[in-house]
Specification:
Elements (H helix, E strand, L loop, with lengths): L11 H9 L6 E6 L9 E9 L3 H12 L6 E3 L8 E9 L6 E2 L3 E9 L10 E9 L3 H14 L1 E2 L17 H6 L3 H9 L5 H10 L3 H6 L6 H11 L4 H5 L4 H27 L2 E5 L5 E5 L4 H6 L3 E3 L12 H13 L8 E2 L2 E2 L5 E3 L1 E2 L2 E9 L2 E9 L4 H10 L3
Helix pairs in contact: 1-13, 3-13
Length: 388
């Protein structure tokens, strides 16, 4: 049996991910969407992929069909190490299928609108956990089905900043565009890319000739930078969805921190590592303070906050705005995008349609449905670590 996350707090997230995603087949996701297909300029597809990043898939489709990335639409960014099924829209896309080794794109009709983040009703999951105490997991699974879980953003949301010393968005807000690019690339997830760029950042043209492991768009950005066209112009080569991820990552990090403080103040909790730097609090039971949170949606840090009535939650958001020095930036546009978009998100989520499908020794298979925007990895972190 693998060591349990609570025994190695600093490695908890690594161990938990091993338990959750030993093989891509252990994590299956099917998007649920009521899609009207009555004809129109947008082509709709079902995208089935295995152990593949969504943005890599979009890049391949873009190259194969000679389609601009700005014409794509989707409801959510599914896990890479998984088998996933989701919907995709392409403005004036071809009415045909596309199959490769790692993904399959199936045309299903046309409609009048593009798909966008949050359009789906939710996702249905079938997950196999290995190397666990199946009795404990089964019991925790049933308990959390009744009491719910804190709706933190999962690590997928922090991809741009996963290895960086600080959020890339903080550098972008200060106008330090080349520093932001350097921080992003010298902390690249591919160790070979990371090493070569760190050693040869001052000589990019030469390094790029012998650099593998970069996506096409990353290579375009670095080529623009190497020609001294300006770091800000180089960053603009990224599609809108990727540029937004820099800002969403930072906004989501602050939202998680605010929720974590609220959870710790209102109930008995236990802590779980999310990333190397971040730990999140889960409540153990439904006390009155937590039950009240189930009725409330927590706003993101944005200009919208100042239209809210003064309350303990509003004061906590204000505290983080002041702590991060963000008040002058809430209306700012960077790279042609609003740095802090408005929106709200449920603080507590209840899973549905829960079922223990199979138990075999130290392996258990679970099924459940989560509403759009909720992360199965967060739910499973609570299940795996729940104190019984």
């Amino acid at each position: 049996m693998l060591p349990q996350p609570e025994l190695l707090p600093e490695l908890g997230i690594i161990i938990a991910q091993m338990l959750i995603k030993t093989y891509p087949e252990d994590f299956c996701v099917k998007e649920v969407l009521d899609l009207e297909r009555s004809g129109g300029p947008y082509s709709y597809y079902i995208l089935k992929k295995r152990d593949t990043n969504l943005f890599h898939v979009l890049e391949v489709i873009s190259q194969r069909w000679k389609i601009s990335r700005e014409r794509f639409g989707f409801c959510g960014i599914k896990d890479k190490r998984a088998i996933t099924e989701q919907y995709l829209s392409i403005k004036e896309g071809p009415e045909k299928d596309l199959r490769t080794r790692n993904f399959e794109l199936i045309f299903i009709g046309t409609g009048n609108r593009p798909l966008k983040i949050g359009d789906a009703q939710g996702n249905f999951f079938t997950v196999t956990l290995r190397g666990v105490d199946t009795k404990k997991v089964s019991e925790a699974f049933q308990i959390i089905g009744r009491i719910g879980f804190a709706n933190y953003f999962g690590i997928q949301r922090f991809t741009p900043d996963m290895h960086a010393k600080e959020p890339i968005a903080k550098l972008l807000l200060k106008g330090k565009f080349e520093e932001a690019l350097k921080e992003y690339f010298i902390n690249h997830p591919d160790p070979q890319v990371r090493k070569k760029l760190k050693e040869g950042w001052e000589n990019l043209p030469e390094v790029l000739e012998d650099l593998h492991g970069l996506s096409k768009v990353d290579r375009i950005v670095l080529k623009r930078l190497s020609k001294k066209g300006g770091a800000e112009e180089a960053l603009k080569a990224y599609p809108k969805a990727i540029k937004l991820m820099f800002f969403f990552s930072y906004q989501s990090l602050l939202w998680n921190r605010i929720l974590c403080e609220l959870i710790k103040e209102r109930g008995e909790t236990f802590m779980v590592p999310l990333t190397r730097k971040e730990r999140i609090a889960f409540y153990i039971s439904l006390c009155p303070g937590i039950e009240k949170m189930m009725e409330f949606e927590l706003p993101y840090i944005s200009e919208e906050v100042y239209s809210l009535p003064v309350s303990s939650i509003r004061k906590k958001i204000d505290k983080w705005i002041e702590k991060e020095g963000l008040r002058p930036d809430l209306k700012r546009e960077v790279l042609g995008l609003r740095a802090f978009s408005s929106g709200r998100r449920k603080m507590i989520v209840l899973p549905r349609d829960m079922k223990v499908c199979e138990i075999h020794k130290d392996k258990i298979t679970l099924q459940f449905f989560l509403p759009s925007g909720s992360y199965a990895t967060i739910f499973l972190l609570k299940v795996i670590n729940y104190p019984l």
